Amino acid sequence: MTQELHHFIGGEKVKGTSGRFGDVFNPATGEVIRKAPLATAGEVRAAIKSAAAAWPAWAATPPARRAQVMFRFRDLLHANLEELATLLSSEHGKTLDDAKGSVTRGIEVVEFACGIPHLLKGEYSEGVAAAVDCYSVRQPLGVCAGITPFNFPAMVPMWMFPVALACGNTFVLKPSEKDPSCGLRLAELLIEAGLPAGVLNVVNGDKEAVDTLLTDPEVAAISFVGSTAIGQYIYATGCAAGKRVQALCGAKNHMIVMPDADMGQTVDAVMGAAYGSAGERCMAISVAVAVGDETADELVKRLAPRVQALKVGPYTDADSEMGPVVTRESLDRIKGYIESGIAEGAELVVDGRDLSLQGYEDGFFLGGCLFDRVTPGMKIYTDEIFGPVLSVVRAKDYDEALGLVNGHEYGNGAAIFTRDGDAARDFASRASIGMIGVNVPIPVPVAFHSFGGWKRSLFGDHHIHGMEGVRFYTRLKTMTARWPSGIRTGAQFNFKSGSEH
Ligand code: NAD
Questions:
Q1: Ligand 1: centre distance to CA 400 (Å)
Q2: Protein residues with CB under 6 Å of any ligand 1 atom
Q3: Which of 21, 24, 151 to mutate to test the pocket of ligand 1 (most atoms within 8 A of CB)?
């Protein structure tokens, strides 16, 4: 029986009225297991109104009280980790361990948000002029909205709303219509943690819902995570409507393998980073740039049998190392890229296309694929494939490898594997990339630092979570105050320097 999902508005489950639904699949079996209602503009406006009505009281709630809600939310997330991970895997397809890891990454952002009283402390300068003090505070923006992708249906929303709420904003979340259940469950847990109704609302939907959030005058800020084409549209439309927008987008993450790298460590790292979560991570390594033919030969020789032996299976099998991709449409798109790679002359060393799992013939499974001798003009190099496909590119030296990283349109993450401190330091300094790993394949920053790419991997000024998150979800106000105890300055008609107030 297919379950019909709902929206979550004003602290309550609300049935969709549009009559339009998005199919939510179990990617391992190919079955439609749930139907997500796709909100009308009116339903989205109801969620915005609910958030706007809840804002004044929530903004006036002392930060330490807001933090207490976050502390209780954290405990509930731990208590419900297994359930959340199972829900996540059932709609996304990733392995249970991987799902738990991603929820735990989200919990770490909640832990960061628990420190909000300290994070919101302002600055104070006493006596900047005679009897004049200057101080600044950060105040919440109002109603903020989050539009999130399918690949991390719990973690990415938790990059956003814990920080936004802790700062004193209210929030409308529009999760991916492909796997919306985690977003709904997180909202319920927050109510259980003591969050007042209306402070966090969840609307399911597609472009109609997103366009309403982008243009409604009561929405002050938009956080988006998803593909570059949509992110650029979100950024342009949201900014044109006068909103603060951050849009974290697509990626093509390179790993440079230097001739002196520890090859055993490198191959282990590539396996997890390229094929974990079936490559559906914005920080997945999709290009390994081997410096020198000997390095490339050794890398490919060691990788090929490992890729061939990947245990691909459903999340219900504890031995699975990699699950299916999210939809049949994704599977077909990825297979199209594999065909284009072959047609453009890359060498397909491991072909995962014929994988078939007994009992799961209708699932969206694809075995790991490995291409060698990929060159920069090929579509499999330029485009984000977002599947379990790794391209090995051969560079003659480090400078050529760095040139590839810096020449690519995306700049999310990149890693270098080497024992050479000079090369590592030079790479960290000169790569045009937002997040760098040195012998770390997926350099996702911890929650108290901030996540974000460069170039066409991010539109906007702020990265997400950490102090950048606090800055994004607050605005600075600066007061200059004189308490005159008998001081007369007389009327002043000229603009004064700071010390002459
Ligand atoms: P997507 O862009 O298709 O969807 C993201 C969100 O936008 C969803 O909520 C979706 O409903 C909405 N959306 C889709 N089409 C829209 C339209 N025409 N108008 C308005 N809204 C629309 O992305 P996805 O396939 O769900 O996620 C995968 C992408 O997300 C990859 O490109 C990946 O790199 C990226 N991603 C980036 C980061 C990062 O931090 N940079 C993190 C995770 C995922």
A1: 32
A2: 147-152, 156, 174, 176-177, 206-207, 210, 225-227, 230, 248-251, 282, 384, 386, 412, 453, 457
A3: 151
Model pLDDT for residues 430-455, shown as the tens digit of each residue: 999 999 999 999 999 999 999 999 99
Would you state the pLDDT for residue 501? 55
- Please report the atom of ligand 1 found closest to the CA of residue 214: 20
Confidence of residue 494 (pLDDT cuts 50, 70, 90): confident
- Alpha-carbon Rg for the chain, nearest whole angstrom, is 25
Q: Are 287 and 341 contacting, i.e. CB atoms less than 8 angstroms apart?
A: no
| CA torsion through residues 328, 331, 333, 336, sign | negative
Pocket test for ligand 1, best of 20, 177, 179, 210 (most atoms within 8 A of CB): 210
* Sign, CA torsion 271/276/280/281: negative
User: Which of 137, 188, 189, 193 shows the shortest CA–CA distance to 167?
Assistant: 137
Distance 194 CA to ligand 1 centre (A): 31
In 257-368, which residue ranges form alpha helices assigned H by DSSP?
263-275, 293-308, 328-343
Go through the domains of the chain in sequence order and give each one's CATH number.
3-249+457-478 (3.40.605.10), 253-438 (3.40.309.10)
The answer to whether the CB of 195 falls within 8 A of the CB of 145 is no
pLDDT digits 0-9 by tens, 6-52: 999 999 999 999 999 999 999 999 999 999 999 999 999 999 999 99
284 vs 253: CA distance, rounded Å: 6
At 135-182, the pLDDT tens digits run 999 999 999 999 999 999 999 999 999 999 999 999 999 999 999 999
Both structure tokens of 295: 């390095």
Catalytic residues: 282
What's the CA-to-centroid distance between 149 and ligand 1, angstroms? 4
- Cα 253 to chain centroid distance, Å, stands at 15
- Whose C-alpha lies nearest to ligand 1, atom 9? 176
pLDDT computed for residue 495 by the predictor: 75
Angle between helices 81-92 and 63-79 (to 10 degrees): 70
The strand pairing partners of 129, in sequence order, are 132
Ligand 1 nearest atom to the CA of residue 250, by list position:
34
